[in-house]
């Protein structure tokens, strides 16, 4: 039988760094990656048969838990009819209808195969529509790894401490203006300076890729009004938050209509999916009706549409989001109580069923304040929790996700593990 360690060794012979996405390397927490054999509900099993309660949730998609019977059934039914045709299916229409009806700001939506593609395409469309080239993004926000957006980004880029990636042309990076999250004054001065050159502002309306950082009261509203006044498009990247906190996005909860929205993760039900959509007038500029080109061989793939649509339908059932809210707030309150008892300074940011335990005693409201965390202490906490069979993201700058499959018993086991792990801190 293979163990994770020997698989990782073998993987490094054939795959750069042994992983197909950098955050999976567990580098920041001084551990070797787990190789997973299977997953069900709230649990994952590594190749050595060890069982863990999982809060990585595939970085967000698994809101129903792993291998949910209805999703397995939907994918199985779809696969019997063929895996891809490259020409339209009814499922794509159904998926689009589900998304459009959940988001008042979306008249038309185009499916793609990843969140990266969604954000990259939305930026191209914003540039094509406005005829302008500069964009504003926020430090610590991650919008996938396309060239324009890989500047002072969050997620693995933050974890590995890579502020700007080699390979991104300087001329392109210069068109991306990065500003501190939650700082509307910085946005106003940038708009004063670059106003008519700005195509768009892209933002995670609740940041999830520098750890969870909620928007300060008024931040999103002001973003909407200052961009609107100058004809700058506002893009909400709801790849994590779409269907995570409500059927729809943060925009539904906040009552704000961005011009374009990016989606991914949950809407694919665990298969590779992304989408971007928005106002008809803007979306009409896309090929084939308009001149802005965007395409994908596997876009709207039948298996992905089946998994995604089945997920969204289950989420529409009653009380799911209240259940998630209740479970996660209980878990976070108990964790907070334990750290208080142990007198270890932490700051917990939680929005609905996503949260981050920051190892700092001050409020985390942007990338700089997230950067003040004690990442060594986090790494110790991570390794301790893993030893107690609790799987949390292997980085201080990521969100933990609670799913509908997490039971009250899972919560109690997690709380007990936290209590034991912090005992010898
Ligand atoms: C995960 C994520 C992306 C990128 O999605 P991929 O499917 O990994 O390409 C983009 N934006 C946000 C906010 C994300 O969390």
Can you summarize this structure?
The protein has helices spanning 4-14, 69-79, 90-102, 115-130, 156-159, 170-173, 184-194, 219-229, 250-254, 280-283, 302-315, 320-342, 367-370, 375-387, 408-423; strands at residues 36-40, 43-46, 51-54, 108-112, 134-138, 176-179, 198-203, 233-237, 260-264, 274-278, 347-351, 354-358, 390-391, 400-401. By secondary structure, the chain is α/β, with parallel strands linked by helices. It has 2 domains: 4-67 and 318-422, Aspartate Aminotransferase, domain 1 (Alpha-Beta Complex); 69-315, Aspartate Aminotransferase, domain 2.
How does this model look, in words?
The chain has 425 residues and is an alpha/beta fold. The protein has two domains: 4-67 and 318-422, Aspartate Aminotransferase, domain 1, CATH 3.90.1150; 69-315, Type I PLP-dependent aspartate aminotransferase-like (Major domain) (Aspartate Aminotransferase, domain 2, 3-Layer(aba) Sandwich), CATH 3.40.640.10. It has 15 helices and 14 strands. It has a seven-stranded mixed beta sheet with strand order 4-10-9-8-7-5-6, sandwiched between helices. The chain has a four-stranded mixed beta sheet with strand order 1-2-3-13. Helix 8 (219-229) links the parallel strand 7 and strand 8 (233-237). It is globular, with a radius of gyration of 21 Å. Pyridoxal-5'-phosphate is lined by residues 114-116, 119, 142-144, 204, 208-209, 237, 239-240, 264, 274.
Bound compounds, each kind once, are:
pyridoxal-5'-phosphate
What CATH first level of the largest domain would be assigned?
Answer: Alpha Beta
How many strands appear in the DSSP assignment? Answer: 14
User: What letter string, H or E per element, gives the SSE order?
Assistant: HEEEHHEHEHHEHEHEHEEHHHEEHHEEH
User: Beta-strand percentage?
Assistant: 5-15%
The name of the CATH architecture of the largest domain is: 3-Layer(aba) Sandwich
Number of helices: 15
What is the count of distinct domains?
2
Query: Strand pairing plus helix content: what structural class?
Result: alpha/beta
- Determine the oligomeric state from the structure: single chain
């Amino acid at each position: 039988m293979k163990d994770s360690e020997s698989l990782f060794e073998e993987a490094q012979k054939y795959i750069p760094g042994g992983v197909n996405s950098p955050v999976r390397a567990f580098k920041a927490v001084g551990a070797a990656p787990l190789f997973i054999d299977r997953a069900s509900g709230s649990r994952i099993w590594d190749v050595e048969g060890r069982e863990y309660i999982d809060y990585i949730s595939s970085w967000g998609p698994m809101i129903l838990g792993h291998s949910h019977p209805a999703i397995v059934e939907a994918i199985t039914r779809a696969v019997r009819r063929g895996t891809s045709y490259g020409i339209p299916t009814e499922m794509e229409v159904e998926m689009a209808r589900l998304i459009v009806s959940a988001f008042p700001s979306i008249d038309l939506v185009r499916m793609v195969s990843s969140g990266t593609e969604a954000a990259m395409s939305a930026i191209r469309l914003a540039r094509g529509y406005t005829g302008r080239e500069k964009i504003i993004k926020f430090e610590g926000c991650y919008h996938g790894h396309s060239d324009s957006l890989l500047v002072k980004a969050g997620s693995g880029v933050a974890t590995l401490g890579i502020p700007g990636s080699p390979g991104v042309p300087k001329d392109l990076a210069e068109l991306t203006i990065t500003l501190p999250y939650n700082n509307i004054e910085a946005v106003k001065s940038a708009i004063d300076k670059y106003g008519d050159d700005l195509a768009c502002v892209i933002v995670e309306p609740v940041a999830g890729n520098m750890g969870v950082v909620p928007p300060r009261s008024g931040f999103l509203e002001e973003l909407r009004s200052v961009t609107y006044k100058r004809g700058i498009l506002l893009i909400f990247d709801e790849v994590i938050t779409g269907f995570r906190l409500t059927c729809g996005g943060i925009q539904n909860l906040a009552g704000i209509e961005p011009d374009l929205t990016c989606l991914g993760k949950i809407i694919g039900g665990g298969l590779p999916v992304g989408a971007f959509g928005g106002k008809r007038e803007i979306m009409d500029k896309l090929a084939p009706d308009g001149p802005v080109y965007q395409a994908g061989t596997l876009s709207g793939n039948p298996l992905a549409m089946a998994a995604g649509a089945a997920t969204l339908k289950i989420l529409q059932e009653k009380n799911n989001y209240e259940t998630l809210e209740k479970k996660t707030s209980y878990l976070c309150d108990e964790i907070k109580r334990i750290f208080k008892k142990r007198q270890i300074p932490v700051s917990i940011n939680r929005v609905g069923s996503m949260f981050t335990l920051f190892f700092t005693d001050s409020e985390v409201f942007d990338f700089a304040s997230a950067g003040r965390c004690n990442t060594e202490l986090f790494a110790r906490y991570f390794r301790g929790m893993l030893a107690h069979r609790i799987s949390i993201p292997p980085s201080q700058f990521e969100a933990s996700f609670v799913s509908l499959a997490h039971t009250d018993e899972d919560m109690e086991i997690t709380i007990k593990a936290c209590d034991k792990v912090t005992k010898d801190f």
